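Lab notebook page, bench 4
Experiment: in silico fold of construct C2
Operator: M.H.
Input chain length: 344 residues
Purpose: comparison with the prior construct
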Amino acid sequence: MNFKSAWVDEPRHIVIRQMELSPPGPGEVAVRVKACGICGTDIHFFHDVPAKTLTPLGHEVAGIVSAVGAGSTQLKVGIPVVVQNNIACGVCDACLNQKPASCSNIQTYMNDQAGMGEYLVVPSAMAIPFEGLDFPVAALAEPITVALDLLREADVRVGDDVLIIGPGCIGLSCVALSRLNGAHRIVVVGHNLKSVRGAYRKEVAFKLGADAVIDSQETSWKERLRGEYPKLFDKVIVTSPPRTIVDGIELAGFNSRIVFDGIDFRDDEISFHANDFHFAKKRLIASHAIPNWGFPQALQLLKSNATLRTSLLTHTFSFDSLEEGFKVYGDENTPVIKPVILIE
């Protein structure tokens, strides 16, 4: 049986491949993909093709178990699932020492399969059952797990003043999670908030619990924050391009944590003043939610927070309109946060 799968073979060119569906082997399941979100990583792949070779698209997946291999007794055909794109191996030294986040043998389907396609064949441990959510909403669980990892690394606690730079899907999820964690004040920084896209993200930030939203396009925006928050921020979460890490470091207070998640294949070098960083005892931490964790929490959050699920999911496109979804993602004149591809 052949099925369709979306890849990029050169910058800004998507190719739909016809692939042969293999039956799931022992401990595996086949998933009929119903929805797949477009992630910022997909946008980087689309524009840059950093591997300089055929690159799969999509890893925010929700679908239905369509076949079960031998030994996969916990999953049945017809069950709705979200699919983790990476899991720990369970047998390396790190895993056996209860440190799966340091697994040296991460298992992924992203080497030779695209989540943005009609089918995936994955280890059954990657497929997490859910109920009570539509498939496009369930696909939001993956970026929310990234936000959960950012909050864990930042260690946001009751009474913290939190600065979140980047009001995309992950940054806005961090707003909701910071409020749940008991943050005192939450400030969001975005760029070009006067655009249609920016204005909508500002609106959503307030709905999810932000106390203030600042436009980094405004003159002296950092001076304004220093004036309004003289002790600066206990926790800084950066979900925007690497160059903005420097802004986060500058606005972090004494004994603070700056946590970053993001990539840029064209411009990933930064510089900052080491003395200020050192004497203020600041800590810079990279968050990279691989292997994935937190899906049960993410699914529960989507169920319980109607504002989160209705505000983040802004657009759906058919598989045949895939390229339109990629165009909309970066359109300043569209109130877009998360486009999801529906795969019928």
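Observations: The chain has a mean pLDDT of 96. The first strand starts at residue 2 and ends at 10.
Next step: discuss at group meeting.
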